[in-house]
Write a structure and sequence with these properties.
globular; 10 helices; 10 strands; binds guanine; 284 residues
């Protein structure tokens, strides 16, 4: 059965819209975007549309690829200090002459709506409630919850060890409340098929189109596809959906699965940033 990420994301967005309207909240999200990077423009466009639908103000600054690291750091510093801005996104990837880690470290952790800053990663690991969680893993966990997929004691296999998907998911799903037994596979892992065959829940986030085949999964597995790849001019995931859809008990399509949930969680995080800042200003 397909997991309809779009429908779940719409439920979350509607709840946010009502909360923002009923409380006269004024959340504001600032985007920094490399102007000549087409996929980034596309993603930011979708994020801006979702902000508008929900009642979140978005501010976008397009930057030339020639911008220096120091110039970008100065812009981030200004946004950090701007009391009207609750949340900041520097859309990746950045040009090769800019160190993405330096940029992530420069964002005020309280405005780090991507949840990429080590302070937020660390808070998530020690289970601090006010941690801003990275949007894709947060969206995957929410999707499993909304689909009533039990994770306690289940074998979860994640393929891909990125800092923004695989590693945070390992932390979230193995933590208290989710209580799964999690295996994290990567490009040097051995016996990938044996691990996958043993998985109750598979999360594919490695960026190789149609990597997961029906022969690799067990009957009734839940399959979550985080991949966004291009194959023969089509948008596809890391899972061979056509092959796996009848063997999986639940499966996310690409597009329309995890993607809309990532955007919904970005909106959730933006409102969280706004409410945290309101609370902080009230207690001054
Ligand atoms: N580029 C692709 N996905 C993302 C994301 O979630 N956040 C940022 N900042 N850049 C991205």
């Amino acid at each position: 059965m397909d997991i309809n990420g779009r429908a779940h994301a719409n439920v979350i967005k509607e709840k946010l819209r009502e909360e923002i309207l009923n409380n006269s909240y004024t959340p504001t999200l600032a985007f920094f975007l490399m102007e000549d990077h087409e996929p980034s423009s596309l993603y930011v466009g979708m994020k801006e549309r979702a902000c508008k639908e929900t009642g979140i103000t978005s501010i976008k600054e397009s930057l030339p690829a020639t911008i220096t690291e120091n110039e970008l750091l100065a812009k981030i510093d200004r946004a950090n200090k701007d009391s009207k801005i609750d949340a900041i996104i520097v859309q990746m990837p950045l040009p090769a002459h800019i160190d993405p880690n330096k940029i992530i470290l420069a964002i005020d952790p309280s405005k780090d709506v991507d949840g990429f800053h080590p302070i937020n990663i660390g808070k998530a690991i020690i289970g601090e409630k006010d941690a801003l969680l990275p949007c894709t893993p947060h969206g995957v966990c929410k999707l499993l919850e909304m689909e009533h997929v039990e994770t306690t004691g289940k074998n979860v296999v994640i393929i891909g060890r990125s800092n923004i998907v695989g590693r945070p998911l390992l932390n979230m799903l193995s933590g208290k409340g989710k209580d799964a037994t999690v295996t994290l596979l990567h490009s040097k892992s051995k016996d990938i098929e044996t691990h996958l065959k043993n998985a109750d829940i598979i999360i594919a986030a490695l960026g190789i189109p149609h990597f997961v085949k029906a022969s690799m999964i067990k009957q009734g597995a839940v399959v979550i596809d985080v991949g966004i790849c291009h194959l023969d001019g089509k948008l596809v995931g890391d899972v061979d959906y056509k092959q796996c859809k009848d063997k999986a008990s639940k499966i996310t399509p690409v597009p329309g699965g995890v993607g809309p949930m990532t955007i919904a969680m970005l909106l959730v995080n933006t409102l969280q940033c706004h409410k945290n800042r309101l609370k902080a200003s009230l207690s001054l």
